[in-house]
Amino acid sequence: MIRSVIELCRSVLKQDRVRISPSEGRLLRLSPPCVLTIGPRTVRIVSRTVSETASGPTVTYECETDLGPAELIVRLTRMLRNDVSLLENGIEHELAESDLVVFGEVSR
After folding, report:
1. How many domains does the chain have?
2. I need a surface site. Which of 19, 31, 59, 77 has the fewest CB within 10 A?
3. 6 in a domain, yes or no?
């Protein structure tokens, strides 16, 4: 049994995987229905779409805000950091990840 555990550990360590911190990955795993705040505003996520771009994966969340529909766009860059923006009424606002407070479901 110990030998099996050691072999399992070796095989896991040999795998080439993208590693990001849980705090950076949380915005890529939000699961509708989910509520979050952006500054003083409350935003409800209603759907999630994942796409692959040349710069890396992008997750787009369709949202409902107090000002109407919007999109929360989370891009994982080559530097393994999230670029977060809110597209509202045709205008894209860049956000700091620290501006968002998540309440509700986050998938694993």
Report:
1. 1
2. 19
3. no
Q: Determine how β-strand 30-38 pairs with β-strand 68-76.
A: unpaired
Dihedral (CA of 15, 31, 100, 62) sign: positive
Distance from C-alpha of 70 to C-alpha of 83, rounded to nearest angstrom: 17
Residue type, 63: C
Domain assignment of residue 82, yes or no: yes
Per-residue confidence (pLDDT) for residue 81, from 0 to 100: 65
Beta bridge partners of 26: none
pLDDT digits (tens, 9 = 90+) for 8-29: 666 655 554 444 444 455 677 7
Is pLDDT above 70 for 83? Answer: yes
Q: What is the pTM of this model?
A: 0.69
Instruction: Tell me the residue range of the domain where 42 lies.
Output: 18-106
